[in-house]
Amino acid sequence: MDAVTIALELAVQDPAGVRVAREVGAARVELAQALALGGLTPSPATLELAREAAGEDGPEIHVLIRPRAGGFRYDCDEIAVSVRDVERAIAGGADGVVIGALDSSGSLDLDAMARLRDAAGDACVTLHRAIDVTADPVSTLERAIELGLRRVLTSGGASTAMAGADTLRALVTAAGGRIEIMAGSGVVASAAAELAATGVDALHFSAKRAVAADGTGVRMGSASDGVGGYEVTDRVAALAVRQALGI
User: Fold this and answer.
1) How far is residue 102's CA from residue 161's CA, in Å, rounded to a whole number?
2) Are strands 7-12 and 28-31 parallel, antiparallel or unpaired?
3) CB neighbours of residue 179 within 10 Å
4) Does residue 1 lie in a domain region?
């Protein structure tokens, strides 16, 4: 197939993931922890080592700011934590942050979003998939544009980007070049070309591979059975997405 002009963003959890992103030519990484929970804010040390792994000519590092799992409606303390996390991420060398907060009605929390945006200063700010649980993603996109955000990460309001492909096309049309649209969720090699054809500016994917835990059987938390594993960035899966796009 002909080469596709589209940016790649890899969701990673550690410096090793950044090195994979660099190898596959990703423009950016979204740095997080606990991707199995939808992603949470990574530690300052993780950002420091990820910055070192990226080097001067590697991918940009955009830090996910999310204080907890379980949705995007945050109380005052959680917003305050997030504002501090934004400030520290930028001070720690992040090229941008990835944010999202909803109000009690399930719409974009404009006051919280403005505080988070302002905390980032001149750095790039992306609205994450909080847009996908709002009632009208296209209307939410307009709010993101009014806030002056750089891009939106979205699955088109569906569980996967492929399922939301029609809405992705509508978002691209509505954006009209005023904001970048990046498709994410369930992005794998077999879907990459079709998603690129929706006209999005970028594809966001994690290329995860599961690693078995030590299997002690000792429970370590309310969501743990003691035998679960963890996830790492898989180089082969990441390269497959790039190759599927002919780039």
Assistant:
1) 21
2) parallel
3) 21
4) no
What is the residue range of 202's domain? 7-244
Provide the CATH number for the domain around residue 78. Answer: 3.20.20.380
Half-sphere exposure of 184 toward its Cβ, with a 13 Å CA cutoff? 27
Tens digits of per-residue pLDDT, 148-183? 999 999 999 999 999 999 999 999 999 999 999 999
Structural domain contains residue 2: no
Pairing of strands 124-127, 151-154: parallel
pLDDT band at residue 2 under the 50/70/90 scheme: very low
Whether residue 157 lies inside any domain: the answer is: yes
**How many structural domains comprise the chain?**
1
Whether this prediction's pTM lies above 0.70 is answered by yes
If you search the block for the tokens 């959680």, which residue do you land on?
78
| Rounded distance between C-alpha atoms, residue 58 and residue 216, angstroms | 38
Distances (CA, A) of 153 to 12, 48, 116, 223: 15, 24, 17, 27
Q: How far apart are alpha carbons 207 and 204 in whole angstroms? A: 10
Query: Strand, coil or helix: what is 13?
Result: coil
Interatomic CA distance for residues 91 and 98, integer angstroms: 15
pLDDT higher for 36 or 96? 96
Strand partners, 108: 102
Q: What is the pLDDT of residue 196?
A: 97
- Give the per-residue pLDDT at 147: 98
Residue 213 gets the label, from left (phi > 0), alpha (psi -120 to 50) or beta, of beta
